[in-house]
């Protein structure tokens, strides 16, 4: 009924499991500690508290959510059904406001409590006696808020405890508040009236630092380190040296507790009680028919007696009780238990009744963890431990490692797991190896192809295996030694190679050679300088040719423009007139262009004689330009010369007269 403290890596359980209250996924009981699987608890979420109830259990995750398992006949698991669960399931939000998380949990007989980060208490499960505190007696399958009742405004709840059919809370004012069944005065309000909402425990000026609920009684630890008890006392469970029930808190008798020893923790079973002293000893009182008080007898005790048995050298730090048995946690992760054991709840590997402390077996509790706390259910026990994550068999991921023949390759076995002591890789291609300590695969690839490699990783938990695909590509070679001859535009992409080609990049003594005849292709046919030329025509031969491939080789070359001339022009002869302008005749044509090219003549031509005098002359024609898509691949002379003639100009003589004469 008490809960644990801080984040834990492991949770363990043992004892009765008929309703799945051990959370192991089945209903088989356990005579020694077993590890509780996570169930619906998400990966990465740790347990922070656990609490055992009648035949169910509750755990609090580091995510602030509650998880529950076991019996569910009254909805005490809080997941919205009445179906028992054999592994942890998430408690639904119910009336818990969005953003509010749980900070504590407590499991009762058939009901459950949780303390919210808002300082309010939430409850679910059986409500026959009003133990849910919501003002009704209706069972609830999801959390409802406990009404304030007599809790003063401004007081927030700091601790909760669930009894068999009643509930208690400690306020920030140090007072206790209780609700639920009260036929034995277990609510401590000076009455035997059942309460459906919290009422104040009539403790006068006493203030409390802890509270523990039994079946019909309640214990409180005051600020001075002493216990008070109230409720049923028919077996002496109030420890006041009487069998008289108490309707309000009464101090515990000192009994065997030495003077000066304060109490640091309390626990309440059905009809017995326990306390831890500041001296590290455990004291018990009340019903002892199963030896649950722990003094080696079966005699009920009206005052505290020391729990003896296997306690020599043990310094106890906490106790828990339920039903008719007890469990104590000592420093150094020591666990001791005593009392009833019909379901193996003492965890000693037997079902033998024990009237004094005996050692709880190690069971599945890992040696490297530290036990943090224990919580007893009616016939089962939960324990939390913290330590390094449990060791699991490494998991190998199917991965791919790529590389190139003759080049360095580096990768690693992809293993998820801790404390791996050895890596193995079977089927690695030539030249590669695995470091057995780190799983790093390295080396220079000596083969080409795809290789399925079986890889394993081993730790103390076992060996995991998987397949690593190693894909090694052929090595790219380049051809050196070639240049490209400059050519005049001819309308083709053909390039003329110069020099002698040879291979570059061959590994070691590999036998590989060039085959075929090299050829070059310009990237296009057009004229230009520094043009890309693709080298082709070569292949690879030799014994090791299969390990290589020829890479693309890019050269550069120049295509110069092609010169054209203008033909077809004539110059009609003209008579000398003192000028140089000439008239053109004929039809101008381009001479020297590549067939099919789109190039023509444009512009406005003009012609002039080189000399204005008569005679055979040279006519200079200018003004022509090239047009068309391929014009850029050609050049045209600025001046075209054509033969022409200027004829002499005929002259006449005028101004003369003849004198008459006689015949």
Keyword list:
mainly beta; 663 residues; five-stranded mixed beta sheet; 49% strand; 54 strands; single chain; disordered N terminus
Layout of SSEs?
Elements: E1 10-15, E2 30-35, E3 47-52, E4 56-61, E5 66-70, E6 85-90, E7 102-107, E8 111-116, E9 121-125, E10 140-145, E11 157-162, E12 166-171, E13 176-180, E14 195-200, E15 208-213, E16 217-222, E17 227-231, E18 246-251, E19 263-268, E20 272-277, E21 282-286, E22 301-306, E23 316-322, E24 325-330, E25 334-339, E26 354-359, E27 370-376, E28 380-386, E29 395-396, E30 399-404, E31 408-412, E32 415-416, E33 422-426, E34 432-434, E35 440-444, E36 449-459, E37 462-473, E38 475-484, E39 487-488, E40 494-495, E41 497-504, E42 513-522, E43 528-541, E44 548-550, E45 554-560, E46 562-563, E47 565-570, E48 574-575, E49 581-582, E50 585-591, E51 600-609, E52 615-627, E53 634-635, E54 640-647
Parallel strand pairs: 30-37, 38-44, 39-45, 46-53, 48-54
Antiparallel strand pairs: 1-2, 1-28, 3-4, 4-5, 5-6, 7-8, 8-9, 9-10, 11-12, 12-13, 13-14, 15-16, 16-17, 17-18, 19-20, 20-21, 21-22, 23-24, 24-25, 25-26, 27-28, 29-32, 31-35, 33-36, 34-35, 36-37, 38-41, 40-42, 42-43, 43-45, 47-50, 49-51, 51-52, 52-54
